[in-house]
């Protein structure tokens, strides 16, 4: 008795380990049951798995239910004995005549065992009918071959390309397959799918470099064991990336009911293998109808939720269609930008003049990039420049802007129209080994004096690249090109920083200019920034000047130049040229702010 009990315990463990019980119907198994039913010409066929007290059908034809009691089920005998079984007529069989199947009107049964490589019977591939039959040996041989095909499919899903070696969990391919089956068999039933992301890419790379891949493998194995313990045998955890694990919530779960569970999971997983010391876990969740969402879209949306979770305070985020559309749009922007650079009708420059508070004349202008996308229309630089700057395309972008700006200066010079042009570049450009040399070549090619241009860089970007960029900035400054620090006051501003940078101009950010009219403290702050900058040898440009009152106040404070909608909105090069010449003609001596 003890041997039989031990074998049954091992058999059940083998069945549980395959993670096949209580999963959705799968087309790869359904094909086999359809073939069986058609070959035998019988109305019922099934892949039946023998659990503790039930027969559960992974696939079936002609059955309306997913399970029956194990008591006096022929498939249970097949699983226990690992031998084929034929019941020609239930009414004439002494044991099965009063079985649940016999009482339900079944008269015929033929089943062959589904046997694992280590010799355990999982259940049976069987055919049934409400009429008695006699089955031939050849037919049983075909049924046996088809049962072997079922087991091949089981083993393939469990091992070949479907299981991660370190965690022992089903992988992304298995999740994709399960999502595809849900699309067929679970349409209309909303489900929640969550993804536990243990670490950002940078953390993962650093951990692998410092502690080695074996340590990472240990963490993965520990987290996999943790997830198995938390979700139990009823559900499956998947490893869908080096540090990512996916789990379906119970069918009746709602987003609201999941939040406390996910918060607890996030706290507890941080204690696994001292995970919190080296990584920052987060969880993304998406709700979907399998019948309306393809597996590809489900997995993509899940990754979108994970990225949102990375940016959330709680480390947990539910999929947002709005955020997802934003990410997709950014991807399109990045993908389409090379074509925009190559064509002549998408990118162009506009120019916003700057007025000297000392001479009252427009002596410079800022070149601003514009993009007319063939599908999206006009895209703001505030949207597309950060996307491009975070990619490898920033070099090409800056080169295009510099080329077009120098070309414009050359054209103006030929018309006798001289104006200094301020050009926005990225601090990343300063790390390019040939940036300075190419600049010298471009200036010579277009016949433009270095004194006619000014490079604008944001102070935050400059400080992020300060060690490498200061040397290049100094060479550019020595060449005669002015350097302006844009958005001054919003980043790392301090005296030490201002003393070391080889810059000529600071541009006070528009937020300070806008607040300047709100009260005394705000005005004092702007005035102090102007005086301090002047005392350190900087010219000062105020951005975002939108009212006459602000312009007058900045002139009184001693600001060098002003720029903003009060003076002019950005305009085309033809319009700018005509506008400036008109202003100069109206007052050839000076065009005072007043």
Descriptive report:
The protein folds into 3 domains: 2-158, Beta-Lactamase; 172-319, Reverse transcriptase/Diguanylate cyclase domain (Alpha-Beta Plaits); 349-586, TIM Barrel (Alpha-Beta Barrel), CATH 3.20.20.450. A hairpin with a 5-residue loop joins strand 12 (347-356) and strand 13 (362-373). Residues 590-594 have low confidence and may be disordered. An 8-stranded mixed barrel has the order 12-13-15-16-17-18-19-20, surrounded by 5 helices. With 594 residues, the protein is an alpha/beta fold. It contains 22 helices and 20 strands. Helix content is 47%, strand content 20%. This is GGDEF domain-containing protein.
Fold topology:
Blueprint: H1 2-17, H2 27-40, E1 44-50, E2 54-61, E3 67-69, H3 74-81, E4 85-87, H4 100-103, E5 108-115, E6 121-129, H5 137-158, H6 172-185, E7 191-197, H7 201-211, H8 213-231, E8 237-241, E9 244-248, H9 255-269, H10 275-278, E10 282-288, H11 295-310, E11 316-318, H12 321-342, E12 347-356, E13 362-373, E14 377-379, H13 381-389, H14 394-414, E15 420-424, H15 435-446, E16 453-458, H16 459-464, H17 466-479, E17 482-488, H18 495-500, E18 505-508, H19 510-515, H20 520-535, E19 539-542, H21 548-557, E20 561-562, H22 573-586
Parallel strand pairs: 10-11, 13-15, 15-16, 16-17, 17-18, 18-19, 19-20
Antiparallel strand pairs: 1-2, 1-6, 2-3, 4-5, 5-6, 7-9, 7-10, 8-9, 12-13, 12-20, 13-14
Helix pairs in contact: 2-5, 6-11, 7-8, 11-12, 12-13, 14-15
């Amino acid at each position: 008795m003890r041997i039989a009990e031990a074998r049954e315990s091992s058999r059940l463990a083998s069945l549980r380990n395959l993670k096949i019980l209580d999963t959705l119907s799968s087309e790869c198994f359904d094909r086999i049951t359809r073939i069986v039913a058609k070959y035998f010409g019988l109305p019922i066929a099934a892949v039946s798995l023998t659990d503790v007290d039930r027969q559960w059908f992974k696939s079936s034809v002609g059955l309306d239910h997913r399970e029956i009691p194990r008591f006096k089920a022929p498939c249970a005998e097949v699983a226990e004995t690992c031998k084929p079984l034929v019941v020609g007529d239930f009414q004439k069989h002494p044991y099965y005549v009063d079985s649940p199947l016999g009482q339900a009107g079944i008269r015929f049964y033929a089943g062959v065992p589904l046997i694992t490589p280590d010799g355990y019977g999982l259940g049976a591939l069987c055919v049934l009918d409400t009429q008695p039959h006699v089955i031939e040996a050849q037919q049983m041989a075909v049924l046996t071959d088809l049962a072997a095909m079922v087991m091949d499919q089981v083993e393939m899903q469990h091992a070949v390309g479907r299981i991660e070696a370190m965690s022992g969990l089903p992988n992304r391919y298995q999740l994709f397959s399960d999502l595809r089956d849900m699309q067929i068999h679970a349409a209309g039933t909303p489900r929640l799918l969550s993804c536990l992301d243990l670490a950002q890419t940078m953390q993962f790379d650093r951990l692998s470099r410092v502690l080695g891949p074996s340590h990472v493998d240990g963490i993965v194995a520990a987290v996999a064991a943790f997830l198995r313990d938390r979700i139990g045998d009823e559900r499956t955890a998947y490893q869908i990336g080096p540090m990512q694990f996916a789990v379906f919530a119970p069918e009746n779960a709602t987003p609201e009911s999941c939040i406390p569970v996910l918060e607890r999971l996030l706290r507890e997983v941080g204690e696994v293998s001292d995970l919190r010391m080296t990584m920052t876990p987060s969880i993304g969740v998406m709700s979907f109808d399998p019948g309306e969402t393809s597996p590809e879209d489900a997995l993509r949306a899940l990754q979108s939720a994970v990225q949102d979770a990375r940016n959330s305070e709680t480390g947990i985020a539910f999929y947002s269609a709005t955020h997802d559309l934003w990410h997709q749009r950014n991807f399109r922007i990045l993908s389409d930008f090379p074509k925009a650079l190559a064509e002549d009708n998408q990118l162009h420059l506009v120019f916003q003049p700057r007025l000297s508070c000392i001479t009252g004349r427009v002596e410079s202008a800022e070149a601003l990039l514009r993009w007319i996308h063939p599908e999206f229309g006009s895209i703001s630089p505030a949207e597309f420049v950060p996307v491009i700057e975070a990619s490898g395309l920033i070099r090409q972008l800056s080169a295009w802007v510099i080329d077009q700006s120098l070309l414009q200066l050359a054209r103006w010079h030929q018309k006798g129209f001289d104006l200094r042009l301020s050009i926005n570049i990225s601090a990343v450009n300063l790390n390019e080994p040939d940036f300075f040399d190419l600049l010298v070549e471009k200036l010579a090619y277009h016949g433009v004096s270095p004194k006619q241009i000014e490079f604008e860089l944001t102070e935050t970007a400059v400080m992020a690249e300060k060690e490498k960029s200061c040397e290049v900035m100094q060479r550019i400054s020595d060449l005669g090109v002015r350097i302006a620090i844009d958005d001054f006051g919003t980043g790392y501003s301090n005296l030490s920083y201002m003393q070391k940078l080889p810059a000529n101009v600071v541009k006070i950010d528009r937020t300070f200019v806008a607040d300047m009219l709100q009260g005394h403290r705000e005005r004092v702050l702007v005035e102090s920034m102007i005086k301090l900058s002047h005392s350190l040898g900087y010219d000062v440009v105020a951005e975002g000047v939108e009212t006459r009152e602000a312009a007058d106040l900045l002139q009184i404070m001693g600001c060098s130049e002003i720029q903003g909608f009060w003076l002019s909105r950005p305009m085309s090069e033809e319009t700018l040229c005509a506008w400036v010449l008109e202003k100069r003609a109206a007052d050839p001596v000076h065009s005072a702010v007043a």
